[in-house]
Design brief:
Distance between the termini of chain C: 43 Å
Radius of gyration of chain B: 25 Å
Number of helices of chain B: 4
CATH class of the largest domain in chain B: Alpha Beta
Radius of gyration of chain C: 18 Å
Largest interface: A-B, 59 and 63 residues
Strand content of chain B: 5-15%
Helix content of chain B: 40-55%
Chains: A mainly alpha, B alpha+beta, C alpha+beta
CATH topology of chain C: Alpha-Beta Plaits
CATH architecture of the largest domain in chain B: 2-Layer Sandwich
Number of domains of chain C: 1
CATH class of chain C: Alpha Beta
Number of helices of chain C: 6
Order of helices and strands of chain C: EHHEEEEHEEHHEHEE
Number of domains of chain B: 2
Oligomer: heterotrimer
Shape of chain B: rod-shaped
Helix content of chain C: 10-25%
Structural class of chain C: alpha+beta
Structural class of chain B: alpha+beta
Chain lengths: 452, 164, 230
Amino acid sequence: MNHPSHEQMTADLLRPLQRTSWRFYLLVAFLGSIVLMGLCTWAYQMYNGFGVSGINNPVYWAFYITNFVFWIGISHAGTLISAILRLVNAGWRRPVTRCAEVITAFALMIGAMFPIIHLGRPWLFFWLMPYPNQRLLWPNFRSPLVWDFFAISTYLTGSVLFLFLPMIPDFALIRDRAPKGLRRRIYGALALGWRGTTKQWHRLESAMQIMAVAIIPVAVSVHTIVSFDFSMAPVPMWHSTMFGPYFVAGAIFSGIAGLIIAMAALRRFLHLEAYLHPVHFENLGKLLLMMSLLWAYFVFAERLTTWFGNDTAEMNVFYVTQRGSFSPLYWTMVVCNFVVPFTILALKKLRTIGGCVIASFGVCVGMWLERFLIVVPSLSHKYLPYAWGHYRPRPVEIMITIATFAAMTLLYTLFSKFVPIIAIWELKAGDHPSPELSAAGQHEHRLGETHA
Amino acid sequence: MAVYALYDTGESAQRAVNALRTTGIADADIAVISSEPMEDYEFSAINHRTLIWYIASAGGFVGLAFATWLTRMTEVAWPLQTGNMPIVAWWPNLIVMFELTMLGGILSAVATLIVTGGLGRKVPELYDPDVTNGKILVGVEQPRDTAAVERALRSIPGGEFKTV
Amino acid sequence: MTHKWGMAVDLDRCTGCGACVTACHAENNIPTVGPEQAARGRAMHWIRVERYYEGEFPDVSVKFRPVMCQQCDAAPCEPVCPTYASHHTAEGLNAQVYNRCIGTRYCANACPYNVRYFDFFNPQWPRPLHLQFNPDVSVREVGVMEKCTFCVQRINAAEIAAKADKRELKDGELQPACAQSCPAKALVFGDLNDPESAVSRLSKSPRGAKLLEDLGTKPAVTYLSRQTQA
C-alpha cells in the first residue's frame, strides 16, 4: 500500500468535514429520535416513580447498573490504545488514537449517566459532591459510590483533556483552510491560537506524555473502583478479592472490541482504507485474543475457587447461573466471549477485518451478559431463601438501554463530522521519528509497514 | 515587524536555522513553525527545556494534600456515630486521595501547556497559514539586524521570503 | 446508663399469625402496595414472617421466622450509603434518615437479611386507611429506603417521658408495635445493657443463636430455636 502524501492525507481526512451526504442526515435523524425516546422514557420514570422499572426486592440493581459497568468498561479502549501505545512508541497507533479516545470520552459520559438514572431521587445526585452547605451534609468517603464519583470525574476530565489537546493542531489546520465565516471563527476559538512553534509542539508532546502516564493508573483505578461497588458488599459471589483485576481485564477486553467495531465502521463509511489497514485490525485482533484468554482465566479462577470452597450461599448462586434459570445467558456469554473470539482470532486466515468485527460484536454481547450475570443472579439468591426473588426487565429499562447505544453511535457520528477522526498531525509526524527511536532495531512501524 | 521564510523540506529549514545562528541570533529568538512535530531534525530541540514534569508533580502533591484534608475534615466535622467501621477510615480515604492526586497532576500539566505554549492569547503573533500546506516557517520576530536575517534566509534555496 | 436496644425472638412460641406485620404497618405508616406489586416483589413488610416447609407431603412441617432489621453492630448497610442516610446511633440502632436518602439502594444490596425496602411509588392508602396515620412517624416519599427502626418513635417518647419524670426506664415499659401485638409473646424487646432485663436473659439462653452470625454483622436480635419433639 502506498504511503499517502501529506496533501493527500489532509484532503482525505478533512473530506468528512467538508462533504455531507443525505445518508448522514438520515442516520442522525434516526439515532436522534431513538435518543429522544430514551430521554422521554427517563422523564417518564422520574415522574411516575422508579417502580415502572423491573427492580424489586431483592434484585435492587439490574439493567441500569449492568449498563453502567458495561459503558465504563467500553471506555477503557481509548486509554489502552492511546496511552500505552503512546508510551511504548508503537507507530501503528497513529491512525487509531483519536478513534479510541473518542470512544473513551463518550462511553464515559454515557456510563456516568447511569448512576444518576438508577437513583430513587435522581434530582439529588449532587449530594455526592463534597460542597459546604448548612446541613453539614458531606458525602460518606467510605462508600464505594463516592469513590465512583471521584474516580469517574477524574477519568472523564483526564480523558476529555487527553482527547482535546491533540485536537488543537488539527483545529488550527481547519481554521487556516476555512474561508472566512462562522466555521473559521469557531475552529479558531477551539484552536486557542495554536501556531506550531517548536516550543508549542514540545510542550504538547510533554503534556501528552504526562497525561498518558497519569491516565493509565486512573483508568485501572476507575474500573477497579466500579468493581468495588460489588466486592465491598457481603453478597454471595460478589465478595471476591479478585474483582478488581477481573473487571479491569474485562473492561479492556470489551474496550478493544468496541474500538475494532468503531474503526471498521469508520474505514467503511469514511473511506479510510489507506489509513486503517488490515494489519491494524490484525494487531488489535491479537490483543482481543489475548484479552479473551485473560478473561477466561479470571472466570476459571473465580469459579474454581467458589466451587472448591463449596460455601452454601455461593453455590446456590453458582448453580443458578450455570445450570438454573440463568444458564441460557451464561452459556451464550461463554460462547460469545471465548469460543467465537478464540476460533476466529487464533486462526490467521480468519483474522481479517470482517472476522475481527464479528468477534468484536460477539464480545460486546458477551461482556454485557457477563455484567448482567454478575449483578442479578447474586442479588436474586442471597442468604435467606425466603427472600430470594427473580428479575425481568421492563420496557423502561430496555428502551433506555437501546437509547444509550443509539446515543453512542450518534455522538460518534457527529464527532466524525466536525473533527477529523484521525489526528492529521500525528499521522504526518510518523514520517519524522525522533532520533532516539531511529536507533538500530527501534524503527517505528508507520501505518503498519514492516521494516526490511 | 517579523522576517521569515517558508521552506518545503526539513533539510532546508535546518540549513536556514543554522544560517540564522551564524548571524548571531540566539536559539530562543528563532521561530520555527510547522504543521507537525519534526523530531528527526535538530531544530525541533529549540526551546525544549521545560519544567512541566516538575509542575505536574507539584500539582499532584497539591491534589494529594487537598484530598487528605478534605476527607479527614469532612469525616470529623459532625459527631456522627458509626458502627464497626470507624468514620476516619484510611483505606477508603486513600482511594479518594489517589484520584485527586492524579487529577492535580493532569490539570497542572494542561495549565502549564496552555500558559507556556501561549495558547488562548489574543495578541497576534508570527504565523503564516501556508504552514498547513506542509511548509516550514523559519524566522525571527523582532530582529535587530533585519538585513542580516534576510541575507541568511535568502541564502538557502527553495525558500519563500516574506516580511510582516 | 446508655441503653442498647435488642430483641429476642422465641421461635418455639411463634405461630406465624402475622399480627406483628399488621401492627408494624399500622404503627409506622407503611403502605400496602397492592396484589400486583406484591407479586412483583415490592411488598414492604418491615417485619416479615418467613415460612419454610420441611419434608414431603404428608410429613410436612412448617417453620415460621419473623425477620426484621437486625440493628447490626457491624452493619454492612452503613459504610456503603453515600449520604450517611444509613448510620448508627449511640443506643445501638441502625438509623435511616429519609431526607438524606437519594435511593442508590446499595444498603439494600449489602444487607444480608434483605430487610431494607424501597419506595417504588409514592405511597397510597385505600380509603379509609388514609385516616389512620400515626402522627409520630413520617410518611416516606418515592425513591427512599426504609426499614424497621425498633419503633424509634416509641423509644424516644418513652425516654423523654422518663427523663421528665427523672426516673429510669423500666424493663417492659417500652415495646415496639410488633412485640406489643404478638399474642404468643414470642417477641421480647429491651435493653441489652441491663443484665436483669428479659431480653438480656433470653439472649444468653442455650437455645439462642443469631441469624447469619458467621457473616460478622453482630446483630442485636437473638433467635431462640424451636424445641424438637422428644
